[in-house]
């Protein structure tokens, strides 16, 4: 493991995926290029390659998930791995077993890759520090911190529809404060050379100090999405809000909800993305989610190939 970046080995190769922050541009592009090859596997009648035959992938989702958990399972299955989904609610976590004891016991069952979602920021880092050198950890979302495979599938989607990042304006709209997706997108977009990344929303959900990340902070939707190529709407994360950050969901929608009329402020061919799950009528109207500019469902489909690429790459590298 590299002391300065625990995701990389001493040769600078990816051994864990914990965050898009600190990942070099060439690694990001290698993941996107590898995913592009796997998209064609997913179009075949027999959607299997033997890359992870004999390997065991353990999905540990301590928080709920539909898209991430399922697409990781599909991705690992298509790579011919054996996949085990731990049912956390029925596991001995409920009896008070610690996270690291759970990992140690699953490691004793010959786990090769742990895919971990956890409400505590940093939980996948802790696990990565304690697993054996041949075991790999993928962060499937930790607290507010990072959701790197969502960030990568977002990059895949943007490149697929819009091409070179160096010509694009991308607006990330809504509850940026609580969004691990926003942070992962911002780090990936800036590393890939996107010259105009904007974060857009009310002051309580888009703190001005985000400008330190190299993005433009906008508290007006019209200014924030004006002439942009990509609009990424974020879910209002009521479950992570403590205190009165917002008067109400309705007031949020009145100022920042993405409607067909407001989408006209972006470029006419702008794409609309959302990581899901969607609060229809809050951060985005149904007619936009289901509309011609929406690429929300292709994002999900690309997520399979991107997760295949990440697992295939890290499994090929040694600590
Ligand atoms: N985008 C995303 O992380 O969705 P899930 O919570 O359903 O996995």
From TrEMBL:
<dbReference type="Pfam" id="PF02729">
    <property type="entry name" value="OTCace_N"/>
</dbReference>
<dbReference type="InterPro" id="IPR006130">
    <property type="entry name" value="Asp/Orn_carbamoylTrfase"/>
</dbReference>
<feature type="binding site">
    <location>
        <position position="180"/>
    </location>
    <ligand>
        <name>L-aspartate</name>
    </ligand>
</feature>
<feature type="binding site">
    <location>
        <position position="117"/>
    </location>
    <ligand>
        <name>carbamoyl phosphate</name>
    </ligand>
</feature>
<dbReference type="GO" id="GO:0006207">
    <property type="term" value="P:'de novo' pyrimidine nucleobase biosynthetic process"/>
</dbReference>
<feature type="binding site">
    <location>
        <position position="277"/>
    </location>
    <ligand>
        <name>carbamoyl phosphate</name>
    </ligand>
</feature>
<feature type="binding site">
    <location>
        <position position="68"/>
    </location>
    <ligand>
        <name>carbamoyl phosphate</name>
    </ligand>
</feature>
<feature type="domain" description="Aspartate/ornithine carbamoyltransferase carbamoyl-P binding">
    <location>
        <begin position="16"/>
        <end position="159"/>
    </location>
</feature>
<dbReference type="GO" id="GO:0005829">
    <property type="term" value="C:cytosol"/>
</dbReference>
<dbReference type="InterPro" id="IPR006131">
    <property type="entry name" value="Asp_carbamoyltransf_Asp/Orn-bd"/>
</dbReference>
<feature type="domain" description="Aspartate/ornithine carbamoyltransferase Asp/Orn-binding">
    <location>
        <begin position="167"/>
        <end position="311"/>
    </location>
</feature>
<feature type="binding site">
    <location>
        <position position="235"/>
    </location>
    <ligand>
        <name>L-aspartate</name>
    </ligand>
</feature>
<protein>
    <recommendedName>
        <fullName>Aspartate carbamoyltransferase</fullName>
        <ecNumber>2.1.3.2</ecNumber>
    </recommendedName>
</protein>
<dbReference type="InterPro" id="IPR036901">
    <property type="entry name" value="Asp/Orn_carbamoylTrfase_sf"/>
</dbReference>
<dbReference type="GO" id="GO:0044205">
    <property type="term" value="P:'de novo' UMP biosynthetic process"/>
</dbReference>
<feature type="binding site">
    <location>
        <position position="67"/>
    </location>
    <ligand>
        <name>carbamoyl phosphate</name>
    </ligand>
</feature>
<feature type="binding site">
    <location>
        <position position="150"/>
    </location>
    <ligand>
        <name>carbamoyl phosphate</name>
    </ligand>
</feature>
<dbReference type="GO" id="GO:0016597">
    <property type="term" value="F:amino acid binding"/>
</dbReference>
<dbReference type="InterPro" id="IPR006132">
    <property type="entry name" value="Asp/Orn_carbamoyltranf_P-bd"/>
</dbReference>
<dbReference type="GO" id="GO:0004070">
    <property type="term" value="F:aspartate carbamoyltransferase activity"/>
</dbReference>
<feature type="binding site">
    <location>
        <position position="95"/>
    </location>
    <ligand>
        <name>L-aspartate</name>
    </ligand>
</feature>
<comment type="similarity">
    <text>Belongs to the aspartate/ornithine carbamoyltransferase superfamily. ATCase family.</text>
</comment>
<comment type="pathway">
    <text>Pyrimidine metabolism; UMP biosynthesis via de novo pathway; (S)-dihydroorotate from bicarbonate: step 2/3.</text>
</comment>
<keyword id="KW-0665">Pyrimidine biosynthesis</keyword>
<comment type="function">
    <text>Catalyzes the condensation of carbamoyl phosphate and aspartate to form carbamoyl aspartate and inorganic phosphate, the committed step in the de novo pyrimidine nucleotide biosynthesis pathway.</text>
</comment>
<dbReference type="Pfam" id="PF00185">
    <property type="entry name" value="OTCace"/>
</dbReference>
<keyword id="KW-0808">Transferase</keyword>
<dbReference type="InterPro" id="IPR002082">
    <property type="entry name" value="Asp_carbamoyltransf"/>
</dbReference>
<feature type="binding site">
    <location>
        <position position="276"/>
    </location>
    <ligand>
        <name>carbamoyl phosphate</name>
    </ligand>
</feature>
<dbReference type="GO" id="GO:0006520">
    <property type="term" value="P:amino acid metabolic process"/>
</dbReference>
<feature type="binding site">
    <location>
        <position position="147"/>
    </location>
    <ligand>
        <name>carbamoyl phosphate</name>
    </ligand>
</feature>
<comment type="subunit">
    <text>Heterododecamer (2C3:3R2) of six catalytic PyrB chains organized as two trimers (C3), and six regulatory PyrI chains organized as three dimers (R2).</text>
</comment>
